[in-house]
C-alpha cells in the first residue's frame, strides 16, 4: 500500500497534468475563437472593399439591350495596387521643383497596364486642357466612322472664315493649311493629332456631328465644353481614363482604337514624355499648351503631356499637367518626370 506521501505526490502530478491539459485547451479554444473572429472581421472588411468596385459604363441612353463597359473604378480596393515607391519618387521630384520655383503646380497620374498598379501626385487638380481635347474630337469622328466609314474620305474646304477663327486666337501657332484647299477628313485628323494643327482642329469642329461629339462627352462621363460657363478644366485622373479606354478598346472598336493610338504615336512633339524615355521607345501621346491671354504679356502657362509609353513588356499610361511662367522649365519637368517613371519601372522589372 502506497504511503501517504507517495499518494499525495501522485495526486499532485495528476492535478498538474489536468491543469496543463486544461490550460492548453483554453489557449487552443481562445486562439481558435480569436482567429475565427479576426477572420470574420477581415472577411467582412474585404467584402465591403470589394463592393466598392464599380463598373464605369457608357452613359448612352440610345442603347436598349446593352450597357457597354468602359473600365472599372476599383474603389477602396485601389489602395492595394498603389505603388508607394513610385509615388514617393515622384513626390520628392515635384517638391524639388517647387523649392526651385520652377512651377506653380504639378500633377501626375500613372497607370501601369501589365502590373495593374498606379501612382499619383495631386492627380485631381484641375487644369485647362488646351490641345488635349483634340483627342476627344478624333474619337468623335471615329465614332461616326463606325456608323458611316466613308466619312473619313470626304473632304472639307479650308476657307477664309475658318482661317480668321484660327488667327483670332492669341498665342496659338499658325496652321499649315492653305485657304481655298480641300482636305480629306482623315488627313485633317492626322494633322490635328500628330502636328496639333489648330486649323485642322477648327475645321473639324465646325463640321463634326455635334450630336455625336456631345454624346462622346456624355459617354465618357465628363462635361462638354459647350455646357460650361467660363473656363473648362480637366484633371490628370480624368484624362488618363481616355488613354485606358483607347488601350483597352472599350469605347471605339479595336480598329479605330488602334488607328487613334497610331496617330498619337506620330506626334511631332518630342520635348515632353518622349524626351524622358530611351530613343526608339514608342509613345502614343498628345500634348497641350494654354497661355493666359488676358493681357498682351504672358502671365501664366499651362503645359501638359499625356500618353502611353510602350516600354518593353511593361506599357503604362502617364499624364503630367503643369502650370508656371517659364515654358522651358515646365518642359524640363515633363521630361524629368517621364524619365523618372520609365527608369523606376525598368529597375523594378529587372529586379
Q: Care to give the gist of this entry?
A:
The protein has helices at 4-50, 84-99, 134-147, 160-167, 185-194, 198-207, 210-219, 236-248, 254-265, 327-350, and strands at 54-57, 69-73, 105-112, 117-121, 155-158, 181-184, 283-291, 301-309, 316-324. It has 351 residues and is of the alpha+beta class. It has a 5-stranded antiparallel β-sheet with strand order 4-3-9-8-7, sandwiched between helices. A two-stranded antiparallel ribbon has the order 1-2.
Key features?
351 residues; alpha+beta; Beta-lactamase; 2 domains; 5-stranded antiparallel beta sheet; two-stranded antiparallel ribbon; 10 helices; 47% helix
Question: Can you describe this structure?
Answer:
The chain is of the alpha+beta class. It folds into 2 domains: 17-51; 69-350, Beta-lactamase (3-Layer(aba) Sandwich). Helix content is 47%, strand content 16%. It has 10 helices and 9 strands. It has helices spanning 4-50, 84-99, 134-147, 160-167, 185-194, 198-207, 210-219, 236-248, 254-265, 327-350; strands at residues 54-57, 69-73, 105-112, 117-121, 155-158, 181-184, 283-291, 301-309, 316-324. The strands form 3 sheets. The protein has a 5-stranded antiparallel beta sheet, sandwiched between helices. A hairpin with a 6-residue loop joins β8 (301-309) and β9. α2 (84-99) runs antiparallel to α10, α5 (185-194) crosses α6 and α8 packs across α9 (254-265). The longest helix is centred in the N-terminal third of the chain and has 47 residues, at 4-50. The termini are far apart.
Amino acid at each position: 500500500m502506497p504511503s501517504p506521501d507517495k499518494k499525495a505526490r501522485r495526486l499532485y502530478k495528476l492535478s498538474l497534468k489536468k491543469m496543463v491539459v486544461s490550460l492548453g485547451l483554453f489557449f487552443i479554444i481562445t486562439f481558435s475563437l480569436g482567429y475565427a473572429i479576426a477572420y470574420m472581421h477581415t472577411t467582412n472588411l474585404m467584402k465591403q472593399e470589394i463592393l466598392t468596385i464599380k463598373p464605369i459604363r457608357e452613359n448612352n441612353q440610345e442603347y436598349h439591350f446593352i450597357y457597354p463597359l468602359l473600365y472599372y473604378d476599383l474603389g477602396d480596393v485601389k489602395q492595394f495596387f498603389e505603388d508607394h515607391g513610385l509615388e514617393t519618387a515622384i513626390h520628392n521630384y515635384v517638391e524639388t521643383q517647387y523649392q526651385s520655383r520652377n512651377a506653380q503646380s504639378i500633377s501626375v497620374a500613372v497607370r501601369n497596364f501589365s502590373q495593374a498598379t498606379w501612382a499619383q501626385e495631386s492627380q485631381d487638380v484641375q487644369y485647362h486642357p488646351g490641345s488635349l481635347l483634340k483627342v476627344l474630337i478624333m474619337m468623335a469622328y471615329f465614332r461616326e466612322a463606325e456608323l458611316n466609314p466613308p466619312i473619313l474620305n470626304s473632304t472639307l474646304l479650308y476657307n477664309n472664315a475658318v482661317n480668321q477663327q484660327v488667327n483670332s486666337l492669341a498665342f496659338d501657332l499658325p496652321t499649315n493649311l492653305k485657304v481655298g484647299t480641300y482636305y480629306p477628313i482623315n488627313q485633317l485628323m492626322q494633322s490635328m493629332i500628330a502636328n496639333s494643327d489648330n486649323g485642322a482642329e477648327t475645321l473639324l469642329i465646325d463640321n463634326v456631328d455635334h450630336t455625336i461629339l456631345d454624346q462622346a462627352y456624355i459617354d465618357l462621363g465628363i462635361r462638354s465644353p459647350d455646357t460650361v460657363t467660363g473656363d473648362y478644366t480637366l484633371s490628370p485622373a480624368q484624362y488618363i481614363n481616355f488613354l485606358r479606354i483607347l488601350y483597352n478598346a472599350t469605347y471605339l472598336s479595336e480598329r479605330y482604337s488602334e488607328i487613334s493610338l497610331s496617330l498619337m504615336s506620330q506626334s511631332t512633339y518630342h520635348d515632353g514624355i518622349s524626351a524622358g524615355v530611351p530613343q526608339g521607345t514608342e509613345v502614343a501621346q498628345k500634348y497641350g499648351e494654354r497661355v493666359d491671354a488676358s493681357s498682351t504679356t504672358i502671365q501664366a502657362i499651362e503645359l501638359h503631356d499625356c500618353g502611353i509609353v510602350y516600354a518593353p513588356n511593361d506599357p503604362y499610361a502617364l499624364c503630367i499637367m503643369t502650370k508656371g511662367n517659364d515654358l522651358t522649365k515646365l518642359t524640363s519637368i515633363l521630361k524629368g518626370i517621364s524619365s523618372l517613371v520609365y527608369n523606376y519601372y525598368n529597375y523594378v522589372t529587372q529586379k
